[in-house]
């Protein structure tokens, strides 16, 4: 297993932007929980087959892929079904993330988990970076990117961990309220730190 650097942050804080910079600047391999969560319900996967057994084939779109909007509606209305789905998929996602991390080849690996604080997943990482922004920045970027109004953006933020809860699991904080340029020195400094730790471990 490589040295695992966890990366988290609230909606539109800049996780993807930061992860891509680690990859572009330093060739660091990324495992992204959102991508893994989609992979475990791909056609013919054990995950999708279990969902079909439970909800029937009407949970599929015409092309045989999972109808996420329909599934979201079901679990929104039925907390029991949400619990069932989490119990099915969370272990699968966790196992696949570990498997993917094991296959990485860079000096350390980045594990991007948006809901790390909410789901207590910081234990999967050796050290944790939180991308931190002011709530106003988060709202503005969510509204601009996702085409939602202020009220909807506020509701999404309210459903996530608070800034304080997220910062409580941070070993390192990247500030991302200003322009992208300001990210580069922060990323370079952390990269050097992680290399030192990896080399000490050898
Ligand atoms: P999510 O988890 O919600 O998908 P995220 O945390 O991965 O989001 P990004 O997708 O990296 O966040 O960034 C959110 C939006 O904010 C994007 O449109 C991105 O281009 C923009 N953004 C990120 N960082 C900056 C910055 N420093 N300056 C201006 N815009 C930024």
Please give a structural write-up.
The protein is of the alpha/beta class. The chain has 2 domains: 1-28 and 108-196, P-loop containing nucleotide triphosphate hydrolases (Rossmann fold), CATH 3.40.50; 36-105, P-loop containing nucleotide triphosphate hydrolases (Rossmann fold). 56% of the residues lie in helices and 13% in strands. It is built from 10 helices and 5 strands; from the N terminus they run βαβααααβαβαααβα. It has helices spanning 15-26, 33-39, 46-55, 68-77, 79-103, 116-119, 135-146, 150-159, 163-167, 183-201, and strands at 3-9, 29-32, 108-112, 127-132, 172-175. The model has no long low-confidence stretch (mean pLDDT 96). It binds adenosine-5'-triphosphate (ATP). Adenosine-5'-triphosphate (ATP) binds next to helix 1 and helix 7.
In short:
The protein is of the alpha/beta class and 202 residues long.
List its salient traits.
alpha/beta; Rossmann fold; 10 helices; binds adenosine-5'-triphosphate
Radius of gyration: 18 Å
Q: What amount of the residues lies in strands?
A: 5-15%
Q: Number of DSSP strands?
A: 5
- What would CATH call the class of the largest domain? Alpha Beta
- Overall tally of domains: 2
What is the count of DSSP helices, taking H or I runs of 4+ residues? 10
Level-2 CATH architecture of the largest domain: 3-Layer(aba) Sandwich
Shape: globular
Instruction: Output the CATH homologous superfamily of the largest domain.
Output: P-loop containing nucleotide triphosphate hydrolases
Unreliable stretches covering 5 or more consecutive residues: none
Q: By helix and strand content, what is the structural category?
A: alpha/beta
Mean pLDDT: 96
CATH topology (fold) name of the largest domain: Rossmann fold
Bound molecules: adenosine-5'-triphosphate
Strand order of the largest sheet: 2-3-1-4-5
> Which percent range fits the helix content?
55-70%
Order of helices and strands: EHEHHHHEHEHHHEH
How far apart lie the N and C ends? Answer: 13 Å
- Main sheet summary: 5 strands, parallel
